[in-house]
Design goal:
The structure holds two protein chains of two kinds. Chain A is mainly α. Helices cover 70% and strands 0% of the residues of chain A. Chain A has one domain. In chain A, α7 runs antiparallel to α10. Classes of the chains: A mainly alpha, B alpha+beta. The interface between A and B is medium-sized, with 29 and 33 residues.
Amino acid sequence: MFDFSQFTTWLHQTLLGFMPEWLAVTAECVLIGFALLLGYSVLALFYILYERKICAYFQCRLGPVRVGPWGLLQSVADMFKILIKELISLKHVDQFLFALAPYLVILASMLSFAVLPWGNGMQIIDFNIGIFFLIAVSSIGVLGILLAGWSSANKFTLIGALRSGAQMVSYELSIGLSVLTMVCFAGTMEVGGIVEAQSDLWFIVKGHIPAIIAFIIYLIAGTAETNRGPFDLPEAESELTAGYHTEYSGIHFGFYYLAEYLNLFIVSGVAALLFFGGWMPLHIPGWDAFNGAMDWIPGIVWFLVKAIAISFIIIWFKWTFPRLRIDQILKLEWKYLLPINLVNLVLMALIVVYGIHL
Amino acid sequence: MADMQEKIAKLFPEATFEAGDTLLVNIPDSRWHELAKTLRDDDELAFDYLVTIVGMDWADSLGCIYYLNSTKHGTHISVKVSTTDRIQPMLHSISDLWAIAVIYEREVYDFFGIVFINNPDMRRLFLSIDWKGYPLRKDYDASPEVNPVSTENERQSDFTNTWVEGPDGKIEKKEVRVFEKDDFVVNIGPQHPATHGVLRFRTAVDGEEIKKIDVYMGYIHRGIEKICEQLTYPQTLHFMDRLDYFSAHPYHHGLCMTIEQAAGIEISRRAQVIRVLMDELSRIASHCLFIGTFCMDLGATTMLFYTLRVREQILDIMEKTCGARMTFNYECIGGVMQDLHPDFVKDVKALLEVLPANIKEYNKIFTGNVITRGRMENVGVLSREDAISWSITGPSGRASGWACDIRKTDPYSIYSELDFEEVTRTEGDSMARFKVRMDEMVQSARIIEQLIDNIPEGEYCVKVPKVLKLPVGHWFRMVEGCRGAFGIYIESDGTTSPYRLKIVPPCLPAAAVVDHLTRGNKIADLITIGGSMDYIVPDIDR
């Protein structure tokens, strides 16, 4: 399988050929930043169209069809519209925090991109606490939401922000614990190591019962983390008009919109990493010819396809279920998911200790 | 009726009686509260359901006609109370006996300026706080100079007035706070996705919990009752489309029947069948929309599209016959405007074929869902007593176990010949209100099935005089609208236009009861409860 690090090493050597090391590193950083921003916006555009199409088919509609073939350019047009929209300035808001909040949200999701395993060697940074870093930076997002709700000086946004705070802090636990379960199984927090450990079989098969339980919990908690239906209380449009981002307009609103879709991708990407091998192709022990054929498909395709397929399930939730109530959401987490998760962690530890896995 | 009259005459010798479509009791204001209490509490009378309070201006006096029904005996009675004081007219309130009277009396106060002594909340209901004059009085000055269109924000007040009668009979005006001083009040509405129109709930919350709701109505009040006083009888019909625009056919039906009854017009059987068919089709369409929007309020957007599919099919049928999809203007005095479209029978049969599968699908995707049940079961429980006291009729009342279907209790048109069940449930929660509507769609389909192959030949509209005058008198009729009992009161002075036309909408009580149902519940429950009551704002505001 093609190792992308060959390309990066070559690039680094070439750059070193005609510039000092500090300049080379700076140039690489700019290059990565550029690639990241590009990938980020393309993915967001894709996801917006993807969700609109899926929900349209769920609802016996066609979805966007006018702009471009099959409506492919619809989200480009939408993005253009949102870029040229006016940023309405409001009285009585805390101007600095009000402007800061959307950047915090977008920052959190961008930082998470740093450790996602895009392909073999195709990772911005691969260090020994990758998963830990991911959980840490994704928690910054809630700060942006809380600030947005508070600084808007609006009762609806305040309620939305407080709901969001309660919800995200609670579900962070479930995410953390289900990730911990898988880290326990992999024996490493390094993203590369986790992927490598699944080179014979994906964890969802290898870790059987506890892995499947962890996957289901992760999916529920991940949906809640991204504030998507049926857990979209912070922005429940029938209750709080638009929740915490009611007062935002123009590109600031666009940032929340982008972040929501990108968080959906990140949650699905992490699920792909922990349970379905990240960029690792489907390998079945003993089937060498098959494994060889699978290796022909590039890692980035594997990763994207897995992430998008998992996103489909999350989108499916949203367009099927009604919304939960705040007390029901907290009850679900604290009374059901958390205890199950803790038991599951012990179960996983036992399985690892006694080696009862495939 | 004679027993009732005897009994009341014995207890209240000062009462006088007039016979009419319902027995009318005249009583002086000083004995009115006592009579009301007797009417409600006496076992043989048991008039526990206050249908409406019709404010009246008879030029020499102002007053009210109270329509009361007994849910136990199925009897009706009306009581007339009046005062000759036009400067500061006062009557005694019955708001301590019927919960809905608080709102009904506010409406009368708003339009006639009659103050109700002991009503805890004497504010205007529909008109703005600074409105000058009382529009439904006959001496009202409607010139725009008196009440110019304001370019300023409407003045708001946190206070309400109440007139309290002391033990010595002295009446004192007091100012009372609507909310407590440090309440956190959130404005839900008038522009809000879940209020289904421009309705405003001023909601005092404690965290996520609701402490009190003040319903603020009147944003689209058009004064239809006032306009009707200047129009001829056939012209008044067109306003029925603009009340509850989802149940335009039953409302039209109600007004037509009242006028026909007053004028002594017999309509053909064909017209009757067509009217009932249209009523039931609208009921299915209306309930479809209810299910869709209710599910959307709860966050299940997909259901909206599934139910709209059926509704569209019905609207297509109506469009072919009536030429419109919303404001049909179909029923007219003497029958219906035009004959059925040749495709009507075929289209309706196609609808009946797809309907059961659709209802099954709705149940599969939504009703049994664990989140749905968590959101709806035991949320906003309305007991049977409360439903009657608040005059919650229609599917919402039946969900509380009150068999209040006018089609069964006072059958009109050809309903007495039809075979259908009145759907009632006992739980009284939001889920029950949802399920009653689901089941009513099946019953409506049953009615249509019985009629669709038996539409008799004949004229669809009988000849009526070009200039229609009603004899002097007053009439009150009720029909079963899609959202509850819809009443029409007409008082005629013998001319071509009504002296007073009072509309009794089922949605006004449904919106008023939201405060009672939501106290102590979560904000999210307000959406569930409001959605399940299925009120529609043009019907409230008129």
